[in-house]
Structures are given as structure tokens and as C-alpha cells.
């Protein structure tokens, strides 16, 4: 390691790990100036977390969110060249630091915002159209495997955070606390706009089957356990149609 590399390594460690910088490296004035840089670096990471989690700070309040952000920064310095991805481990961090999270619904809210961000950044893909689907011969339907759009995320949530997110994004500030509610939420992107929807238990079963790459025939068998064999295919087609209209199903391979 050259002298320059050693200096760069010490500089980086002092910045990222909040370690003291030896005065002989920069001199007394340089160390003081470095302190300003150290503060600015952490302030930028806190700002990145606010950008990546827009609603969470509004719910938590400035002081609580800053305490969470500072603890997260200390545990997880930035490792990616883009601040767009800073905070990718915040949900896991919140799940193991109850003292920094004064309501369990905050974790679900953070998970929702993470899913929306990932959906926005997902790869594009051609969508299935009703015309293309209607052109598939009936005997081939049982073996069809429908693929969800790359942006699709399925969340298993325990609190009704959707209305809170929507209200705060709409500028409302006066709202009731979220209710406890075990449910699934579907997140995806349509064009350049992210979407979300709370699913019924039947819809969640169907989406899970699609994520598991089950054929349409197997999806019908799964639904038959809930609605009976006579209604299984009709129910599957209805659920598929809703996802198709939402823009969540990819075009069939040719």
C-alpha cells in the first residue's frame, strides 16, 4: 500500500466509521475542516433516507426519524455509489430495534415504501393484452404459465398502513392511528406510476400461485379448494382479468 493509499484509507475509515483522524495527517486546521465534512456526510445520508422514505418521517416526526436515521447510519454506512439505494436494509434494522420504533405499524409503512421504490426502478416488460389472451386456444389454457411484471411485489402486512400513506401523500395531517389488519398488499408499476392494492385472501392466493410459476390448471386446482371445482376456472379467469387490466401481467412468450 502506497502512502497515498494509506492516507485515503484512514480518511475513509474516519469518515464512514466516525473514527478520529490523526492530526499529523492533515494538521490542526485540516482536522477541523474534516469535522465539517463528517457532519455534512451524515446530513446527506439522513436527507437520502428522507427522500427514499417520504411518508415515514411524516408519521414519526423529525426527532424520532432523525434518531432512527443516525442509528442506521452508524450501523450501515453507505456502500453503493448511488444514494437511491441507501436505506435498503432499513426495514430489517427497524425490525430488530424496537426502541427506535414506537409503533409496529411503522415497519409495515417502511416496507410499503421500499416496495414502491423498487417497483418504480424495476425493469420494463411488455404487457399481456386481452386480445392476445383471447387468441390462445382453449385446450392450451391449462398449461399456460403467466408471468407477473418485474415490478410486482407482494407484501404480507399486519397493519392497515395504505390509508395512512395515501392521506399523507395527499397532504392530510389529521388522521386516526392505523388499525391492526393482517392482509396482503400488491405493489407494481404501470407506465411511470407506482400502484398498490390491498388484496382479498382469494386474490392473494392467486398471486402467490403466479409468483410460484404454477400453470393455469394448477391455479384452478388451488382455487377449487376454496370455491369448488365448478367455480374454480371462472374465478381464476376473473382474477386474471383484474391483474391484466391493472397492467401486472407480462406478455406471453412467442
- Classify the secondary structure makeup into a structural class: mainly alpha
Could you tell me the CATH topology label of the largest domain: Outer Surface Protein A, domain 3
| Uncertain segments | none
Number of domains: 2
Helical fraction equals: 55-70%
Rounded to the nearest angstrom, the radius of gyration is 24 Å
Mean pLDDT rating: 92
Q: Secondary-structure element order, as H and E?
A: HHHHHHHEHEEHHH
**Major sheet: size, sense and barrel closure?**
3 strands, antiparallel
What is the quaternary state of this protein? single chain
Q: Measure the end-to-end span.
A: 55 Å
Strand order of the largest sheet: 1-2-3
Would you report the number of β strands?
Answer: 3
Quickly give the CATH architecture of the largest domain: Alpha-Beta Complex
Task: Identify the overall geometry.
Answer: elongated
Assigned CATH class of the largest domain: Alpha Beta
Q: What fraction of the residues are assigned to beta strands by DSSP?
A: 5-15%
Helix count equals: 11
Task: Give a verbal description of the structure.
With 254 residues, the protein is mostly helical. The chain folds into 2 domains: 1-102, no CATH class; 125-254, Outer Surface Protein A, domain 3, CATH 3.90.930. The protein has helices at residues 3-16, 23-52, 55-60, 62-75, 90-95, 105-121, 130-134, 162-169, 201-211, 216-227, 229-246, and strands at 153-159, 180-190, 193-199. Strands 1-2-3 form a 3-stranded antiparallel β-sheet, with helices on both faces. β2 and β3 form a beta hairpin. The longest helix is centred in the first third of the chain and has 30 residues, at 23-52. The chain is elongated, with a radius of gyration of 24 Å. The mean pLDDT is 92.
Amino acid at each position: 500500500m502506497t502512502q497515498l493509499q494509506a492516507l485515503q484509507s484512514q480518511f475513509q475509515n474516519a469518515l464512514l466509521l466516525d473514527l478520529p483522524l490523526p492530526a499529523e495527517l492533515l494538521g490542526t486546521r485540516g482536522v477541523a475542516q474534516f469535522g465539517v465534512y463528517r457532519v455534512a456526510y451524515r446530513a446527506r445520508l439522513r436527507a437520502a433516507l428522507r427522500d427514499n422514505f417520504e411518508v415515514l418521517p411524516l408519521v414519526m416526526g423529525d426527532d424520532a426519524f432523525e434518531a432512527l436515521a443516525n442509528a442506521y447510519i452508524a450501523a450501515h454506512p453507505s456502500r453503493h455509489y448511488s444514494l437511491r439505494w441507501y436505506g435498503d436494509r432499513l426495514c430489517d434494522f427497524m425490525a430488530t430495534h424496537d426502541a427506535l420504533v414506537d409503533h409496529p405499524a411503522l415497519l409495515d409503512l417502511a416496507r410499503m415504501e421500499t416496495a414502491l421504490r423498487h417497483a418504480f426502478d424495476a425493469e420494463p416488460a411488455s404487457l399481456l393484452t386481452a386480445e392476445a389472451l383471447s387468441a390462445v386456444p382453449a385446450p392450451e389454457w391449462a398449461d399456460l404459465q403467466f408471468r407477473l411484471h418485474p415490478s410486482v411485489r407482494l407484501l404480507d402486512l399486519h397493519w392497515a398502513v395504505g390509508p395512512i400513506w395515501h392521506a399523507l401523500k395527499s397532504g392530510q395531517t389529521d388522521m386516526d392511528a392505523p388499525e391492526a389488519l393482517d392482509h396482503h398488499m400488491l405493489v407494481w408499476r404501470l407506465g411511470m406510476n407506482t400502484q398498490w392494492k390491498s388484496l382479498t385472501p382469494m386474490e392473494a392466493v392467486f398471486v402467490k400461485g403466479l409468483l410460484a410459476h404454477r400453470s393455469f390448471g394448477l391455479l384452478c386446482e388451488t382455487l377449487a379448494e376454496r370455491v369448488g371445482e365448478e367455480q374454480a376456472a371462472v374465478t381464476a379467469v376473473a382474477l386474471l382479468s383484474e391483474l391484466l387490466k391493472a397492467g401486472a401481467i407480462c406478455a406471453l412468450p412467442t
